[in-house]
Design brief:
404 residues, alpha/beta, FAD/NAD(P)-binding domain, Enolase-like, domain 1, 3 domains, five-stranded parallel beta sheet, globular, Pyridine nucleotide-disulfide oxidoreductase, FAD-oxidoreductase/Apoptosis, FAD, FAD/NAD-linked_Rdtase_dimer_sf, oxidoreductase activity, acting on NAD(P)H
Length: 404
């Protein structure tokens, strides 16, 4: 009987398992996950769960995974190595043979070098991290968020909601440039001061100061020293692939992500990958991408699972990226890529709502919206159809047009 092993029991891994069964795979499936918890929804960890407005949202019960999907579920088990010549996955619980393998190990938070061992310096990636941060953020506490990306901004927003004093420190002059471009990035950055949250751009933390082993304050590169009960380091994440060193799988030289073909197959014929770790050629844009968002993990997991279940009928994975974020009761949504010129086809950067589109050679390749949830999926459809600027103007009545 063919055995499919999926490494990573989060969204991408679970979707791969579900898709393999839907495709008709009747062999054995083993799902291995480092965390002891069942697969759960991660976006609320920096928002509604962190603020105490929601409980953990597990995607499926253990019974549904084990009995409903016929999966050998092994939680609390970390992958430690791969011997493709033997078709063996090495784990901290022993060796596991496979016939086909899907890698979905996600990403790990980046840390600053030289950070002192002080209680109060944390990262946020998993449920345990969120529980820890939830205990630390109290009314009146001083929370410093290093990194004005989406996760960091969500944490700052949540801290303010909990009655804490939050300050966001960002090393770049404009945050989120890689994700949404400099024009939209600057507009989103203004949401912090508009909500009363200090934002220090082009600034880093030069020193951490503690008392009796606990964080007490931080010194900024500007020379300013501010009190700090908690510092959340949110400077991005790196593909969790160090355990693949020496396996023969080709990794990207820039970040260690797994390089795949259009069908999400790795450099090894019996191994596929999905989620945050994957670099693959996206035919919608004719370029290689690596995406870190919920939608991609879900969709890519399904395609990898189907392709691994039936390799002879493997299909390429093509997508118009989509992600969202919530700050200060505001909904930010983005589709596509941030390339070309920016036009605000509805609203303006300082408005309470806006629609900005990215146009490259008259083709709409991306769109960013603030509190315009009904328009975003229509924009995604236009982008997938390779629509031009005129189609967007027909969809969104222009109020103000400004160019980058």
């Amino acid at each position: 009987m063919t055995r499919l092993v999926v490494v990573g029991a989060s969204l991408a891994g679970l979707r791969a398992v579900e898709a393999a069964r839907r495709t008709g795979f009747e062999g054995e499936i083993v799902l291995v996950g480092r965390e002891p918890a069942l697969p759960y929804d991660r976006p609320p960890l920096s928002k509604r769960y962190l603020v105490g407005e929601a409980e953990v949202d597990f995607y499926k019960t253990e019974e549904e995974i084990r009995d409903g999907l016929g999966v050998d579920l092994r939680l609390g088990v970390a992958a430690t190595g791969l011997r493709p010549g033997d078709h063996v996955l090495e784990t901290d619980a022993g060796e596991l043979a496979y016939d086909r393998l899907i890698l979905a190990t996600g990403a790990s938070p980046r840390m600053l070098p030289g950070v002192p061992d002080l209680d109060g310096i944390v990262t946020l990636r998993n449920l345990e991290d969120s529980d820890d941060l939830r205990r630390r953020i109290r009314p009146g506490s001083h929370v410093i968020v290093l990194g004005a990306g989406f996760i960091g901004s969500e944490i700052a927003s949540t801290a303010r909601k909990l009655g804490a004093h939050a300050t966001v420190v960002e090393g770049a002059p404009v945050p989120l440039v890689r994700a949404v471009g400099d024009v939209v990035g600057a507009a989103l950055a203004e949401l912090h001061p508009r909500a009363g949250t200090p934002l220090r751009l082009s600034t880093t933390i030069s020193a951490f100061h503690g008392i009796d082993g606990r964080l007490a304050s931080v010194e900024l590169s500007t020379g300013e020293t501010i009190p700090a009960d908690v510092v959340v380091i949110g400077i991005g994440a790196s593909p969790a692939t160090s355990w693949l060193d020496g396996s023969g799988i080709v990794l990207d030289e820039r970040d260690g992500g797994v390089r795949c073909d259009a069908t999400l197959r790795t450099s090894l014929p019996d191994v596929w990958a999905a989620g945050d770790i994957v670099h693959w050629p996206n035919a919608v844009y004719g370029r290689t991408m690596r995406l870190e968002n919920w939608t991609n993990a879900s969709d890519q997991g399904m395609r990898a699972g189907a392709n691994a279940a039936d390799p002879d009928r493997a299909l390429p994975f093509e997508t118009v990226p989509y992600f969202w974020s919530d700050w200060y009761e505001r909904r930010i949504q983005f589709v596509g890529i941030a390339a070309g010129e920016v036009e605000y086809v509805s609203g303006a950067p300082g408005d309470d709502r806006f629609v900005a589109v990215f146009i490259d050679d008259d083709r709409v390749v991306g769109a960013a919206t603030l509190d315009e949830p009904r328009k975003i999926m229509k924009l995604r459809g236009l982008i997938s159809r390779r629509a031009g600027r005129a189609a967007v103007l027909d969809l969104v009545q222009p109020q103000l047009v400004t160019k980058e």
